[in-house]
Amino acid sequence: MDFLEWARSPWGQNVPIHIAWFLIWVAVIAGFLFFIVHATYLRYFAKSKEFASSGSPLIAARIPEKVPRHSLAARLFHWIMAAAMFTLLFTAFLPKVGVPFDWITYHWIAGAVLTASILFHIIHASFFMDFWSIWPDRIDVRDAGRRILRFMGKPAPPPDKFAKYPLENKLYHGAIVAAGLSAIVTGVFMMFRVRTIFFPRNPYLFGDMTWGMMYVLHGLAGVGLIALIMVHVYFGLRPEKRAITKSMIFGWMSRDFYLKEHDPRRWPVETPTASPTSRGAEPEGIRDAG
Amino acid sequence: MAVIRDVMPAFELLQPSSIVDAQKLLQQQGRDAWVLAGGMDSFDWLKDRIKKPKVVVDLSGIAELKGIRATSDGIEIGAMTTLTEVVQHPVIKEKFKVLAESAELVASPQIRNQGTLGGNVSQDARCWYYRAGWPCYRADGNICYADTPEGRNREHAILHAERCVAVNPSDTAPALIALDAKFVIRTSKGERVIDAEDYFVGPDIDITSLHVLKPGELLTAIRIPSAWAGAQFYFEKVRDRNVWDFPLLNVASAMVVSNGTIERIRIAVNGAAARPLRLKAVEDAVRGKAANAATGTMAGKLAVEGAVPLQFNAYKIPLMRNLVKRAIGGVEEATWTS
Asked: Which option is the CATH number for A4-57+74-245: 1.10.10.10, 1.20.950.20, 3.90.470.20, 1.20.120.80?
């Protein structure tokens, strides 16, 4: 079974031309298997979450009823990116699984929208949001070790509550960054092979092998995104994650959910009467709603 | 690459004797099967060892696929009917002359004796990069070698190019579109009948095929309704060698003209795109107008709107404009303009 399709170039060189399309179904099946295994685990085997204490009742008393989580700009970015991503996946893979249509124009337009939205997100996250909130920190790593030990029935102190994003969320973001940027960078170069409004067509920009690897990477990123997006939608629909999903629509989550899952010392929120304080101090303020 | 010519790779030869059996075999073999009609396109592929099918399904033993029959509304031509039979059939010559004329201009007498109508409309593109076995889009690769600054694209598309710029080489296809023919396709679910223009597909929809047939499907017949019988027909083919060549461009039209006014018209061109193009905008524009050179000039200009020439095929734009002009205004009235 070959994972790549190969061809012989006019110069007699064996070059990869794209991934084998059965990998589409591998990604889809992997996504569904994840649903089944995860849902079964949560339904029958998972214990309720246990966290270390996260501060005094005084802190909790100062948390507002609606805890701001995602700014309007962040939410708009998310949904524009989602629309572009779904368009890209459907236009890329439906023709490959037997639903032919005129896909390429919609595909590169959606790719251009995704690229623009990602550029916006990078600037927005770097300069107007708490950039490090989405990247794993030392407490995440320490708590991951504790959670694994407790899962295996070995003694370990309970982990802290989460910062703004749980470790799983941060790791997922990392995977999306890798797959998304791979697809975008290769996709931008692949636009040189078709007629678009952006630059003159130049199919000889790279050699056959480089082009081939680019198509392979684009395809691998694409099928990877199928599974990643399936998992993302699955978590978005799970009952225990619904508060997070709603926050991506309305911008806030409830005080109860915040106090149940999040550590005000790690993710301080703004209170009506207080000004922002430094990270990790008593939660008198917030710097980020991204 | 064409490594060994004239020595075909080994394949299993299946020779069904009925349409039902042929369809079942094609269904069983799926993508491994190669449909062999007259062989005029197939043997090039096989002898050049560009295509190496595991199974070849030879349709030549199926009597049901051969012959021209009268129906309650016109005629039905079996897909395996030879082009010579089409050219010589008295009803076609009398009522659907545009088809006879187009078939008579296909290749050479020897090829017309062997080549079939079904094969002619289902043949593959003649782009030499593709035929040479290069890994282009049409061969499931990721490049068009013809659509490059150095690419030899004199014969290629000026309209509706989408990554691949190969054109459909059929001469009978535009005539059948002009006659509003129906293509009968046998599938695992039964019989499907589609309009002639819907039989062909461009690279925007399917970049690896020129027609809509899927594995397991078989073109069995072409029905020509009587609606256009005896109309005023026009067919013209322009090619490099007049004795024997594929079209650079061709045009076919069927018009019903009353008192010098075009009442009804169907017109199609081929060689301009990856599928034969029915010129609906032209039909709408000239309907109700005088069938003369002025109308033809207007139609010709309209026909080439949106055309994008490649490096070496800009000549196709005035060529197509003039062919459409002559199809509507007539050869004697219309004058050639460059």
From this structure: 1.20.950.20
